[in-house]
Design a protein that fits this description.
heterodimer, A: 309 residues, mainly alpha, two-stranded antiparallel sheet, two-stranded antiparallel ribbon, 4 strands, 70% helix, B: 602 residues, ABC transporter involved in vitamin B12 uptake, BtuC, 21 helices, disordered C terminus
Chain lengths: 309, 602
């Protein structure tokens, strides 16, 4: 049986998730030139926020139709609070500092968030079960779950609304102006601090959507889930051209498909029999990043920008 | 420009009353300090609690134990400084500026360590009833110098109240009188004495047997060093070092070599060798981060490459090449070369780009390294590293019949297995320090610093940025690989788990980076100090257990917020982080009429 369509679908789904998280990296980077390493952990806290709503707020036996939107809201509130809090208390005081300082702060923040969840969230030192949507549907030779439908719908709706927001709304245009030149934008009357907070909040919201989709799809969440997902999402953002929101989504999808195809088919190449499978998927994703940096450092959709030293 | 029109600051208000926050005449304050500190030191000889259950046995009158010695030390220091402030002949060198901040700081130190002990006793044994009268006396006695200290007038300008008034107490005076010139042999004697003292203090820290003692030790050391800093003695000492650089370096290495001879238990030599490995790798990372300004988040992977290479050619029967046994020099070179190759492979594509990419690629590389060695077990990957089981049974080194695994007797001292490796690591560290200092002072080192400060300008000055950065990155990788080859032999086996981004025990990439940043980027002593601290803290403070990483993360955030240049600040770094208008801060020196543009949104 031809497994290619199924693998492509898997890659597309995984890639949409990367893309949703990558939005957070790319928007923040586009405006303040900061790699928010803690973004993977914001994704993780979003998942735990949603989990809290499901297990500790909603009554038992709530149908998933009602539960999922409420979980989304809960996860989004937590993730946005964490993201905005990080900006306000960790990054903003360092905005004039040399580049190394906020990066190291971000590492500290990422460790602290992981450890807070591990130490203080009940049962979070091991993987915690997350309500999953497992009903499967067959479309041709492709089998997908309800969770996958949720993920695709969420990704499309989020991306479309973000595109409209950035292009049409006043705040969105202010955002573009700030990304282009913060000093001039401020002289034009834009409250750049507010714009930066909004960029962090949007990133947090998208991460929360991805987190709920992750939980529904895989059925469990743990405190370390943000690290690798964050790393891959950043790879996706670079792949698509950092600073470009469409690039982030495209990069995510390309990365997801490449990774899935590599782990499914690379062992059929003579001499690489043992390098297939899920355990090597991360290695191939990373090799893709190196190749992109080597041949197209500005990313798929990025423009060649002068190095702002 | 309102400053020019202002009248010169002829202050019409009467001079502030010559007392501090607590209204007492200075003479009384000083007397309180002296009497209180002597009483504090004396109270260490009393029994503080009734049972030996509290570690260190604080029950015997006339014989201080553990934490009581620390209280005693702090009391004596305060008393000495107070005597110096009275102008007693022979002690004047302790307080060159005659300022009060050192007195305040040592008084706080004595108070903190005593009260910490008393509170720890009551908390651990369950209630204040466990304090003997001696404990109460100590608590009250240590409070007296504190009162005295805050009754002293502040050194600085203290018309503001509140926070500023408190800050003025611990401020370092701007001007420290220059030392009178001394004969070279006195200078060398002073350096020798300080080195010996440093070795003693450091050894005491490593040998602390329980967490409470280590906390007390840290309290006393921090406040004492701070006090010496405000007294201006640290500045004087660094002048002394600058004048006798090679002598100091030699003394430092002598002290490092002397450490295992002071140890009777090989366990502490083990801690010593691990600190050295950690410190050596941190120093290698310092070339990359501190000098060249490249953020490497997967540095521990290079240590891992070195360790695995050494393990593969060590002759271990579990190695894939079990028949091969390289002599150590060849294994060390192979390990360093393997790391170098990986460094170039990772660095070449990424160093052409902006620095942020390097951070993420090295982070990815670190993670990939761990995943790859985990998978190369023959089942889910090629059979090279035995997967999660790693390569055990690495034989001990043997130099010309000197077996590192055996205990040797050397002139009455017994050197255990770890002490042998410790001495080897001192040698390797000497090589790394040599490479570091020679490189930093060379043409290439200055290019690194130029690149770090401003890459565009450096390139315009004719520096080949990519080449220089690649050299820094590859050199750092090779040094880590070299340290890795020794660490493989010290730990008997190599397994994938230590080579991760963040874990609760060093070395891992986050701890390495933190050691460099905490100690002070771009200095030699900084990363070594940072490595020692970051190794000892989780080792000694076992009660933190799984909260240690949380504390670590928060500490990293706070460090970047409040002292980004680290404990031992490189002068250039310090100016860079705190825009003091001395190096390159044009917007501060406003000579124009227009108001300065706020850069808040940048």
């Amino acid at each position: 049986m031809n497994t290619l369509p199924q693998q492509l679908a898997n890659g597309l789904l995984l890639g949409s998730m990367y893309g949703l998280i990558a939005i957070g990296y790319t928007m923040v980077y586009g405006i303040v030139q900061l790699i928010n390493f803690a973004h993977g952990e914001i994704f993780m806290t979003g998942a735990f926020g949603a989990l809290t709503v499901y297990f500790y707020v909603l009554p038992d036996g709530t149908t998933m139709w009602a539960a999922v939107p409420l979980m989304l809201i809960g996860g989004a509130i937590v993730a946005i609070l964490v993201a905005v809090g990080a900006e306000r208390f960790a990054y903003r005081p360092l905005r004039q500092a040399p580049r190394l300082a906020p990066l190291i702060t971000a590492i500290g923040l990422s460790l602290a968030l992981q450890e807070v969840v591990r130490n203080f969230y009940p049962g979070a030192d091991k993987a915690r079960a997350f309500p999953s949507l497992d009903t499967t549907h067959d479309i041709g030779s492709v089998t997908i779950k309800d969770a996958d439908i949720f993920l695709i719908l969420a990704a499309v709706v989020c991306m479309a609304s973000l595109a409209v927001f950035v292009r049409r709304s006043r705040t969105g245009r202010a955002m573009q102006a700030t990304a282009q030149d913060p000093d001039t934008a401020q002289l034009m009357g834009i409250d750049t601090n507010r714009i930066i907070v909004i960029a962090f909040a949007i990133g947090g919201f998208f991460a929360a959507v991805a987190a709920v989709a992750y939980g529904l799809k895989y059925g469990n969440v743990d405190y370390r889930m943000g690290f690798l997902m964050g790393l891959k999402a950043f790879t996706a953002a670079v792949l698509g051209g950092i600073g470009n929101i469409y690039g982030a989504m495209l990069g995510g999808i390309v990365l997801g498909i490449a990774e899935t195809l590599a782990s499914a088919y690379i062992d059929e190449i003579p001499g690489m029999q043992q390098l297939g499978g899920q355990s090597w998927a991360n290695v191939w994703a990373f090799c893709l990043l190196i190749l992109v940096l080597l041949f197209r450092p500005q990313g798929l959709l990025g423009e060649r920008v002068a190095d702002r030293a | 420009m309102t400053e020019t029109t202002k009248t010169p600051p002829a202050d019409p208000t009467p001079a502030p009353a010559p007392h501090g926050l607590i209204p007492l005449p200075p003479a009384a304050a000083r007397a309180l300090l002296l009497l209180g500190s002597v009483a504090t030191a004396a109270s260490a000889f009393l029994a503080w609690t009734w049972t030996a259950e509290f570690p260190g046995d604080l029950t015997i009158t006339g014989y201080p134990g553990g934490l009581q010695w620390l209280t005693f030390t702090a009391g004596v220091l305060t008393a000495l400084l107070t005597l110096a402030s009275y102008g007693i002949r022979g002690l004047g060198w302790l307080l060159p500026a005659r300022n009060n901040a050192p007195l305040v700081l040592t008084a706080i130190g004595g108070f903190a360590v005593t009260w910490f002990t008393v509170i720890a006793i009551s908390a651990e044994l369950g209630g204040l009833a466990n304090l003997e009268p001696g404990g109460w006396i100590a608590a009250i006695a240590s409070l007296i110098p504190l009162i005295g200290a805050f009754a002293l007038p502040q050194d600085g300008n203290t018309t503001d109240g509140g926070k500023e008034a408190l800050k003025a107490y611990i401020a370092k005076p701007d001007r420290i009188p220059a030392p009178t010139p001394t004969a070279p042999w006195i200078q060398r004697a002073a350096i020798t004495a300080v080195t010996a003292l440093g070795l003693g203090v450091f050894t005491y820290g490593i040998d602390t047997e329980y967490g409470e003692l280590f906390v007390g030790y840290l309290i006393v050391v921090v406040f004492t060093v701070w006090a010496l800093h405000t007294a201006g003695l640290l500045d004087r000492f660094s002048h002394l070092i600058a004048g006798n650089r090679s002598f100091t370096l030699a003394m430092g290495f002598l002290a490092a070599i002397a450490f295992p001879f002071t140890q009777t238990n090989d366990h502490y030599a083990n801690i010593g060798v691990n600190i050295l490995i950690f410190g050596t790798v941190a120093l290698g990372l310092n070339i990359v981060v501190g000098l060249a300004g490249l953020l490497d988040l997967g540095y521990v992977a290079f240590l891992g490459v070195g360790a695995y290479t050494a393990a593969l050619v060590s002759g271990s029967e579990f190695s894939k090449f079990s028949g091969v046994q390289f002599p150590f020099w060849a294994a060390a070179l192979t390990g360093a070369a393997a790391s170098l190759v990986f460094g170039v492979l990772i660095g070449a594509p990424t160093l052409r780009l902006r620095g942020d990419y390097l951070a993420i690629v090295t982070l990815g590389f670190g993670e990939i390294f761990r995943i790859a060695v985990n998978n190369m077990d023959g089942d889910s990957g090629p059979d090279i590293t035995n997967g999660p089981n790693g390569i055990p049974a690495i034989p001990d080194l043997d130099f010309f019949g000197f077996d590192f695994g055996e205990t040797h007797d050397l002139g009455g001292f017994t050197l255990g297995r770890f002490a042998n490796y410790y001495l080897l690591m001192v040698l390797i560290m000497a090589i790394v320090v040599l490479v570091y200092t020679r490189a930093a002072d060379s043409r290439i080192g200055r290019s690194w610093i130029a690149i770090r400060e401003d890459e565009t300008a450096a390139t315009a000055m004719g520096i080949n940025g990519f080449r220089v950065k690649l050299i820094a990155f590859a050199l750092g990788a090779a040094l880590a690989g070299l340290a890795g080859t020794v660490s493989a032999h010290v730990t008997y086996s190599v397994v994938p788990t230590p080579y991760q981004f963040a874990g609760s025990t060093p070395p891992n990439s986050a701890f390495l980076l933190a050691a460099v940043v905490l100690g002070g980027m771009g200095t030699v002593a900084g990363p070594l100090l940072g490595a020692a601290l970051l190794y000892l803290l989780p080792e000694k403070l076992v009660f933190l257990q799984d909260k240690s990483l949380l504390a670590f993360g928060i500490a990293l955030i706070l460090l970047m917020r409040f002292r980004p240049e680290g404990i031992i600040a490189n002068r250039r770094r310090q100016l860079e982080f705190h825009e003091t208008g001395q190096l390159d801060v044009p917007q501060q020196t406003t000579l124009t009429d227009e108001p300065a543009v706020t850069k808040a949104g940048a």
